[in-house]
UniProtKB/TrEMBL annotation:
Gene Ontology molecular function, alphabetical: FMN binding; metal ion binding; phosphopantothenate--cysteine ligase activity; phosphopantothenoylcysteine decarboxylase activity
Domain DNA/pantothenate metabolism flavoprotein C-terminal intervals: 10-221
Location of region: Phosphopantothenate--cysteine ligase: 15-223
GO terms under biological process: coenzyme A biosynthetic process; pantothenate catabolic process
Keyword check for S-adenosyl-L-methionine: no
Pathway: Cofactor biosynthesis; coenzyme A biosynthesis; CoA from (R)-pantothenate: step 3/5; Cofactor biosynthesis; coenzyme A biosynthesis; CoA from (R)-pantothenate: step 2/5
Domain of life according to the entry: Bacteria
Span of the entire protein shown here: 176 to 398 of 398
Name of the featured protein: Coenzyme A biosynthesis bifunctional protein CoaBC
Enzyme nomenclature, EC number: 4.1.1.36, 6.3.2.5
One cellular component (GO) term of this entry: phosphopantothenoylcysteine decarboxylase complex
Keyword flag Magnesium: yes
Cofactor(s) the protein needs: Mg(2+); FMN
Record family assignment: In the N-terminal section; belongs to the HFCD (homo-oligomeric flavin containing Cys decarboxylase) superfamily.
Length: 223
């Protein structure tokens, strides 16, 4: 019978993708966040689904929607919520791509009422969030592929290799904010992939859809 999905390379693979920023509440109206649009992660989720994978997308707050109806989307807000959701999903996952821009710090306390401004300056105590990718790297079984991102402004490759090793990744996708056309909110990106054998592949500036195809091809080659 003419079922094209039978020949797709990621058929029967369960994939977990995270995307977007996390928002860390300060009080009922304010939060600490970052400039991540979620575009890269959503493009990856779409491409993997197009290659036949069963995709779960854990998304921080973004303005984006998924077009492939097969993608199961779970919305989260904070780093703590993203961690809990990832932990629930990871065991039954074959391939995990952590593209979310998770907050590194969160307010020590969340005010239950709106904080009123005073005549003086104001500061907030922050505590570290859990490193989700590091925890998944510790839990990773040999059959699972784990892929992370690194966003750097300087000493990019050295920092990316440190993260690759520390977080027990199969490969890391390096984004440099120094590359014109790459990074937050843009529709294009320029990446370097470094794998666990330290084989490095540098790609041209491309649309995020095309970048997602390159990442997906690397995943298929790594299986
Ligand atoms: N990450 C994570 N949990 C965090 C912080 C980061 O899972 N609390 C993941 C990101 O999703 C990304 C990778 O770790 O896949 C690297 O994120 P990045 O911010 O580049 O590195 P950090 O390890 O947070 O270090 P730093 O921000 O100091 O460079
Ligand atoms: Ca970080």
């Amino acid at each position: 019978v003419n079922d094209i999905s039978k020949s797709l390379p990621l058929k029967n693979k369960k994939v977990l993708v995270t995307a977007g920023p996390t928002y860390e509440a300060i009080d009922p109206v304010r939060f600490i966040g970052n400039h991540s649009s979620g575009k890269m992660g959503y493009a990856i989720a779409e491409e993997l689904a197009n290659q036949g994978a069963q995709v779960t997308l854990i998304s921080g707050p973004t303005a984006l929607t998924v077009s492939n109806q097969g993608i199961k989307k779970i919305d989260v807000i904070s780093a703590a919520e993203m961690l809990e959701t990832c932990k629930q999903e990871f065991e039954q996952t074959d391939i995990c791509i952590m593209s979310a821009a998770v907050a590194d710090y969160t307010p020590q306390e969340v005010a239950t009422q709106k904080i009123k401004k005073e005549a003086t300056d104001f500061s907030i105590q922050l505590k570290k969030t859990e490193d989700i990718l590091y925890q998944l790297g510790e839990a990773k079984k040999p059959h699972q592929l784990l892929i992370g991102f690194a966003l750097e402004t300087n000493d990019e490759e050295a920092f990316a290799i440190q993260k690759l090793k520390k977080k027990n990744l199969d490969f890391i996708v390096l984004n440099s904010l120094n590359d014109i056309g790459a990074g937050f909110k843009k529709d294009t990106n320029k990446i370097t992939i470094i794998d666990k054998n330290l084989v490095k592949t540098t790609f041209e500036l491309k649309t995020k859809t095309e970048v997602a195809k390159d990442i997906c091809a690397k995943i298929i080659a790594s299986l």
